[in-house]
Write a structure and sequence with these properties.
mainly alpha
Length: about 325
């Protein structure tokens, strides 16, 4: 029992450290400390490159990671391509949003992901909406507008940050839908999904990173000699790869409900860390808005898990996650 408890604490800690670190690393990379030129697409592209390279190294270095050879038919499958296109859009918009908003406001700016996921589930997956789901959405929307109003009053509101945040939420919701569809194509292999998705995304990003001159800027300016820039880039790519694996381990050692609770608790910790690190001062109503968003997301997760528990037969035994989990 004591050994299992240590594993649970270790897995939750791994998820928290990874998830919080990637937000702070990306903010540091996009904050203008490495030049005024926009690097949002280059950072996302490089993260995909790191993910593919690390997976290939892991495949050759250990027997615990099994990655099949690329199948062109699967790579060009319509659902796989749509997943990658939305993944590229989500990463790009998320970086653009993070460039314009403070880390403390990150969770609020991305809060519409839940709203869009529910809407898309209704229209694309033919799911029904229950009153409890609408209540969760109501809490999120109220919290979003309360926080935005407080940001405006304090003079720190970025309209572009809000726009990018809403668009990033929409693309992230599309990603969630297509992940479900691609799961059937990949026979439920999370590593295979990550591998194919990152390979596709790398090539989709390539014309974008070239046409925006971000690739040219990096390799023609003094930034190419900045060791810290490449260190932060590599670490952000490693963290983006690790986050899915850490999420899967957290679900495996706890439960889906505990995982969602942990996500919300992590978001609160991330907000507190950002406020302390950047020495920001927030109003009472700003905190109320944040808590409403967190409560809405957490209540939706709780209602959803209760609903799924009722639909599972008593004789059903949950299949364990794969050893290598999700990247």
């Amino acid at each position: 029992m004591e050994g299992r408890l240590r594993k649970i604490v270790g897995v939750v800690l791994l998820y928290w450290v990874t998830s919080i670190s990637i937000v702070f690393l990306n903010k540091h990379l996009l904050s203008g400390r490495f030049g005024k030129h926009d690097l949002s697409i280059f950072v996302a592209w490089f993260q995909c490159l790191v993910s593919v390279v690390v997976l290939l190294i892991a495949k050759s270095a250990t027997r615990y990671v099994s990655i099949p050879s690329l199948d062109l038919g699967i790579l060009l499958n319509s659902n796989v391509l749509l997943l990658s296109i939305n993944f590229v859009a989500s990463l790009t918009l998320n970086n653009l949003m993070l460039k314009h908003v403070a880390v403390a406001f990150y969770q609020i700016a991305r809060s519409f992901t839940l709203i869009f996921t529910i809407i898309l589930s209704v229209f694309m997956l033919k799911k029904s909406i229950k009153c409890l789901t609408l209540f969760s959405c109501f809490l999120v929307i109220c919290g979003f507008f309360v926080s935005v109003e407080e940001e405006e009053q304090s003079g720190t509101l970025s309209i572009w940050g809000i726009i990018y945040g809403i668009l990033s939420s929409l693309s992230a919701a599309f990603c969630a839908i297509y992940f479900r569809k691609v799961d059937e194509v990949m026979n439920g292999s999370p590593i295979k999904i990550a591998y194919y998705n990152n390979v596709n995304s790398f090539f989709i990003f390539l014309p974008l990173v070239i046409s925006t001159n971000q690739l040219t800027y990096v390799f023609s300016s003094d930034i190419i000699y900045d060791y810290f820039f490449w260190l932060y880039l590599f670490l952000s790519g490693l963290m983006s790869l690790t986050i899915g694996w850490a999420s899967a381990l957290q679900i495996q050692y706890t439960s889906p409900v505990t995982h969602h609770i942990s996500i919300n608790a992590k978001s609160v910790a991330q907000t507190l860390l950002a406020i302390m690190y950047y020495r920001e001062v927030k109003t009472f109503w700003w905190w109320v808005g944040n808590m409403l968003v967190m409560l809405g997301i957490m209540s939706y997760a709780f209602f959803k898990m209760k609903e799924e528990d009722k639909s599972i037969p008593k004789s059903f035994t949950k299949k364990p996650l794969e050893k290598a989990a999700i990247f």
